[in-house]
Design brief:
The complex is a heterodimer of chains A (256) and B (245). Chain A is mainly alpha-helical and 256 residues long. Chain A is built from ten helices and no strands. Chain A has two domains: 39 residues; 205 residues, MetI-like fold (Orthogonal Bundle). With 245 residues, chain B is mainly alpha-helical. Chain B has a single domain, classed as Orthogonal Bundle (MetI-like fold), CATH 1.10.3720.10. Helices cover 85% and strands 0% of the residues of chain B. Chain B contains ten helices and no strands. In chain B, helix 3 crosses helix 8 and helix 9 runs antiparallel to helix 10. Chain B is globular, with a radius of gyration of 22 Å. The chains are: A mainly alpha (256), B mainly alpha (245). At the A-B interface, helix 1, helix 4, helix 5, helix 8 and helix 9 of A face helix 1, helix 4, helix 5, helix 8 and helix 9 of B.
Chain lengths: 256, 245
């Protein structure tokens, strides 16, 4: 079954709601109920984003952050998968560890960022380690959950068919775990972005977060909102794509 | 039971050993040793200033938590009971839940200024969406047979809500509240890191500025213990609701 976008009533209503929200914001800003020091009208944010992209003046910052996010997310995904798989095989280690892992996202992990700066210096490495540290736990948790989700009937079938361990892994375990793995990937990417942007806010020589913090400090609202919009649109696009993938897998494998 | 407790102790010992090894590897400028951190945490807990900061954080966390829970449940109930409104709002809520809200800190600062309202706002934007999403899905997932039973028994809408919907939806709602409350705490702390002059988040950023490694580690350890305890408590309540209901 191929997934294709279809227009529904709810979809139309949603577009109208979002459009109205933007129009209302535009009007509030233009009339002056929200003053310009607080927020510039959305149309100006878009114009600012456009000029940032056309002139390419912040390309270095954008590429810097993009590279770091990709590196951190890859480390988090690959590392988290293997740690999660190992934990799944060691239930005695896993049981006491679970409450700790689930509390991981309740503390702001980036308080360790200054310590990473001391260890690695100001630059790429500290940011990438930060992002990977933030993202890896989501991948670990979802990998263990995913590997739990092999339906007993399927496991029995694979035993009856006498599949070898490699084929069992490729044909049974990974497909059964796939929806959760994609959830893990989605979260690992999102958390890597948070870790890296937060690090750039705190201390960095360049990057999107650095640029936003710098323009905030200098009352340069046009640049700040332009860069914020760029960041949010990029995150939403990636997240939307991964969510779509996740939904299709959930539908296909029926695991929840 | 006994062996689980033994496993916990084993894990704890293992983590302390790992921590100590890393400390030896990278030096005290990067990571203070477990013993030094625990001792520093003990010293901090004995000071007045720590409790002032803790009280500031607790106040903001309490207010933000209550707002997140009430607003999240109200929104979730409304969207769960009106299918069309729910269909319209679902992806919007999902997107709002997933955007990295830390990037919004300049906007929150510009809107609310430095102070307690910015912290609370930060807590609420983190906590309200998961609670709304879980509540909405909880209400929608109540089995149709329950609705039919309520009709057969000719229950009033109030009685239906109270005796059928609430118990059926409660476990999933509590799961949402657990996630939401944890994120509210994170939001409040982020607010304090970037936009405040009091609270444990502020104490952390000051320790970061002066590079007081032991302080950073000690405050983080205390926060982690607190967050894990709240999480465990809410998890316990959730399990009770699941099995007792």
């Amino acid at each position: 079954m191929r997934w294709r976008p279809h227009i529904t009533e709810a979809g139309i209503a949603r577009a109208v709601v979002i459009l109205l929200a933007f129009v209302a914001l535009e009007v509030l800003c233009r009339v002056g109920i929200i003053n310009r020091v607080t927020m510039i009208p959305p149309s100006e944010m878009v114009a600012s984003l456009w000029s940032i992209l056309i002139t390419g003046r912040y390309n270095e910052d954008i590429l810097f952050t993009l590279f770091n996010v990709i590196a951190a997310a890859l480390i988090a995904i690959v590392g988290g998968f293997f740690v999660g798989a190992a934990l799944h095989g060691l239930p005695r280690l896993r049981r006491p560890l679970v409450p700790l892992l689930s509390a991981w996202y309740a503390i702001p992990t980036f308080v360790f960022y200054p310590l990473l700066i001391v260890a690695f210096g100001v630059g790429r490495t500290a940011l990438i380690v930060m992002g990977a540290l933030f993202g890896v736990v989501a991948m670990i948790v979802n990998t263990t959950l995913g590997l739990d989700h092999v339906p007993p009937a399927v496991a029995k079938t694979s035993a009856i068919l006498r599949l070898g361990s490699l084929r069992r892994l490729m044909l049974i375990r990974l497909p059964s775990a796939a929806p959760h793995l994609v959830t893990g990937i989605k979260l690992a990417v999102a958390y890597s972005v948070i870790g890296i942007v937060a690090g750039e806010f705190i201390l960095a020589t360049q990057g999107v977060g650095k640029r936003i913090a710098f323009s905030y400090d200098n009352f340069d609202n046009r640049t700040m909102y332009g860069m914020l919009l760029l960041l949010l649109v990029a995150v939403m696009a990636v997240n939307g794509a991964l969510s779509g993938w996740e939904k299709r897998l959930h539908r296909r494998f029926g695991a929840r | 039971m006994k062996s689980t407790r033994f496993d916990y102790l084993l894990l704890l010992a293992g983590m302390l050993a790992l921590w100590q090894l890393v400390h030896w590897a990278v030096g005290p400028d990067v990571l203070s040793s477990p013993w030094a951190t625990i001792r520093r945490a003990g010293e901090l807990v004995a000071t007045r200033a720590f409790w002032d900061h803790a009280a500031a954080t607790a106040t903001a966390f309490g207010i933000a938590g209550v707002i997140s829970i009430l607003a999240g449940i109200a929104l979730g109930l409304w969207l769960g009971l009106r299918r069309f409104a729910g269909d319209v709002a679902d992806p919007i809520l999902g997107t709002l839940y997933s955007i990295p809200k830390i990037t919004l800190y300049p906007i929150i600062l510009l809107l609310f200024g430095l102070g307690v309202s910015a912290k609370i706002a930060f807590g609420v934007i983190h906590g309200v969406f998961p609670i709304a999403i879980f509540t909405m899905s909880a209400v929608r997932n109540v089995a149709p047979v329950y609705h039919r039973t309520a009709r057969v028994l000719r229950l009033s809408p109030a009685a239906t809500a109270l005796t059928i919907m609430a118990p059926a939806a409660l476990p999933e709602m509590l799961a949402g509240i657990r996630v939401g409350v944890a994120l509210t705490l994170l939001g409040v702390l982020i607010g304090e890191l970037f936009a405040s002059t009091s609270g444990l988040g502020f104490a952390l950023i000051r320790a970061m500025d002066t590079h007081a490694v032991a302080d950073i580690m000690a405050i983080t350890l205390l926060l982690f213990v607190f967050a894990a305890s709240v999480n465990a408590l809410l998890g316990f309540v959730e399990r009770r609701a699941r099995h007792g209901g």
